[in-house]
Structure formats: C-alpha cells, structure tokens
C-alpha cells in the first residue's frame, strides 16, 4: 500500500465498487476527464474489467476511457472495447524479437495452455501486433509502453519504436525497469540513459516524457495524487 509504482493498489474493486469510486471522484474533482483501468494484473484476462467498462459507458459516456494491457487478448477483446467506447489503449511491448521476448517472459497462459520460451514470446508478439493494428484501424489512440531493461532489450528498443511508428502508434513511453523479482539483479537505467533512449526513439515516434509510473489506483493530476483522500472519505 505504501509503494508508488505501476501495478499496486490499495484494494481490488468490483465493477460496482469501481463505478461508485468514479462517482465520488467526479463529484469532488470535476476536472478529471479520463478513467483508466491498469491493473493489478492483466485487465483483459478478467471479465470484471469489461463489465466495469460497460457500466462506465452507460453512466459516464462523455469521459475518456482507457485501458492498459499486455496485448495477449487484445485482438479478441477489441470489439467489446470499441463497443464500450474505450478510445485509448496502452500496450506494453517489450520486444519485437521472440528471442529477446523469451528473456523477458518466462511463460504465457493462452486459451487454457501454458507456452514457454520463444514459443510463448512468439504468440504474445503476434497478438500484440495484431491488436495494435486493429486498434489503430478503429481510430483508437494507441500508446506503447516499453520497459527499458539494461542488458536485455536496451539495444532493441529503437527497433520497437520504429515498428510502433510504422504501425501508426500515437505515442511511445520508455519506462525504466523497477528492479524486482527475476530482474532484481539488474541495475535500472539512469535518468540520463532514459533521456538518451527517448531521443533516439523520437526519430520514429512521438515520445511521452511526462510519465511518473503511477500506481494502478492513482487519482488526480500528475504530481498531485488525491487517491488517499478518496479512500479515507
């Protein structure tokens, strides 16, 4: 609860609790124009995510809806996302070479089966690229997040940015590694390294430079998170 990084949240909300939270937020902070679902976990793996989007679409039709996903299930969920007026999609794309992807992802679970190594990374990549292509074709605003992992994908990131630009991705976000779990031994890139990578990638696609790696339950403006105020009322 006391960490400030992507993927953490004070609690997991049901669809009904999510809508009630949005009601409270919009009543207290009417300047908010965007509702996003970004975890914890993979949103498109949970039916509750789509039910939440349905409810939000009915009650808050004029608020921008966005979702963050690893892209594995994006092709099969894209029509429902469009139906519920999700106009902004962020896909975490850390490699466009399955050999490099296999160094990042240990396995995937897809359609009831576990795939490991290069085989799993290849399936993931195919779905990510197809999902991005489908979202762009539907005039959705697509952002690609790429985690900068020194020694793993750092030489490869400009290639990812080039591919994203060619596909019509709106903006590209280089996110420095948070050294945890299987990557706990890797030293994260410095701010200077991140800036240099962004400058290199800017040749191919617009860069998002203001990311502050918000919690999944962040509320408010950048640098002025009011999440704790909401939960304590």
Indicate the topology:
Blueprint (H helix, E strand, L loop, with lengths): L14 H14 L5 E4 L9 H13 L4 E6 L4 H10 L2 E7 L5 H7 L2 E4 L2 E4 H21 L3 E8 L8 H11 L3 E6 L14 H11 L18 E2 L2 E2 L1 H5 L2
Parallel strand pairs: 1-2, 2-3, 3-6, 6-7
Antiparallel strand pairs: 4-5, 8-9
What does this structure look like?
With 233 residues, this protein is of the alpha/beta class. The chain has one domain (15-231): Aldolase class I (TIM Barrel, Alpha-Beta Barrel), CATH 3.20.20.70. It has helices at residues 15-28, 47-59, 74-83, 98-104, 117-137, 157-167, 191-201, 227-231, and strands spanning 34-37, 64-69, 86-92, 107-110, 113-116, 141-148, 171-176, 220-221, 224-225. The strands form three sheets. It has a five-stranded parallel sheet with strand order 1-2-3-6-7. It has a two-stranded antiparallel ribbon with strand order 4-5. Strands 8-9 form a two-stranded antiparallel sheet. Helix 2 (47-59) links the parallel strand 1 and strand 2 (64-69). Helix 3 runs parallel beside helix 5. The longest helix is centred in the middle third of the chain and has 21 residues, at 117-137. The radius of gyration is 18 Å and the shape is globular. It starts with 14 loop residues before the first helix and ends with a helix.
């Amino acid at each position: 609860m006391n960490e400030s990084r992507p993927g953490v949240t004070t609690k997991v909300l049901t669809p009904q609790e999510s809508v009630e939270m949005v009601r409270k937020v919009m009543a207290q902070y009417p300047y908010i124009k965007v509702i996003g679902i970004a975890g914890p976990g993979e949103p498109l793996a949970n039916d509750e995510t789509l039910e939440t989007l349905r409810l939000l679409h009915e009650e808050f039709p004029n608020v921008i809806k966005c979702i963050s996903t690893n892209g594995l299930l994006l092709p099969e969920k894209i029509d429902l996302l469009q139906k519920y007026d999700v106009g902004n999609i962020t896909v975490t794309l850390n490699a466009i070479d399955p050999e490099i992807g296999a160094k990042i992802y240990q396995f995937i679970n897809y359609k009831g089966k576990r795939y490991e190594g290069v085989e799993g990374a290849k399936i993931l990549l195919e779905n990510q690229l197809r999902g991005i292509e489908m979202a762009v074709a539907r005039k959705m605003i697509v952002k690609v997040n790429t985690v900068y992992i020194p020694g793993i994908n750092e030489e490869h990131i400009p290639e990812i940015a080039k591919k994203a630009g060619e596909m019509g991705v709106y903006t590209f976000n280089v996110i420095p590694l948070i050294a945890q779990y299987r990557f706990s031994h890797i030293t994260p890139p410095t701010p200077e390294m991140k800036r240099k990578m962004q400058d290199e990638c800017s040749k191919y696609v617009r860069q998002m430079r203001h990311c502050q790696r918000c919690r999944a339950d962040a509320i408010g403006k950048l640098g002025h998170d009011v999440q704790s105020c909401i939960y304590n009322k």
